[in-house]
Amino acid sequence: MSVKSVLLVSLALVLLYSSGSILWSEYEAKQWPQTEAVILSVEAKVKDSVLIDQRHRVPEVLYTYEVAGATYNSNRVSLDPEYLNEIYSTFGLEHPNERYKVGEALIVHYNPSAPGEAILREHVSRPVYFVFMVGTLLFFGSLLSMISSKEED
Predict the structure, then answer these.
(1) Three-state SS across the chain?
(2) What is the value of pTM for the model shown?
(3) pLDDT tens-digit readout, 95-137
């Protein structure tokens, strides 16, 4: 077994774990109950980059919703990882949060065991699926490469 094969399998497992846990959270969030939310504000926040040494603009959405007579506020829009905000900003793409308007009524999905935890979009963005597919292909490609190299020995 070569070092290259071990590194590729390790990278694949990291990609599968990171994207798989997000996809599992998406599955769970789709089971959460729903209620109506109202957008209170949408404003651009400048944040430090997680990936590279620069700052990026992220539209932050603040909304309010009610569960069993209690009012909650949240700014969590989706389950997408933080690095996607940087990708949108770095490449000048329209951020999904820019489509929300102040005063707009929307459906929010909230965690029944912790109603203060909620999201507006229960699905994740396509890049998360892409990372999962790359991890899967890399994993099986590495395994096939390791198997074929063992057969040659």
Answers:
(1) CCHHHHHHHHHHHHHHHHHHHHHHHHHHHCCCCEEEEEEEEEEEEEEECCCCCCEEEEEEEEEEEEECCEEEEECCCCCCCHHHHHHHHHCCCCCHHHHCCCCCEEEEEEECCEEEEEECCCCCCHHHHHHHHHHHHHHHHHHHHHHHHHHHC
(2) 0.62
(3) 555 678 899 999 999 999 999 989 887 666 677 778 788 888 8
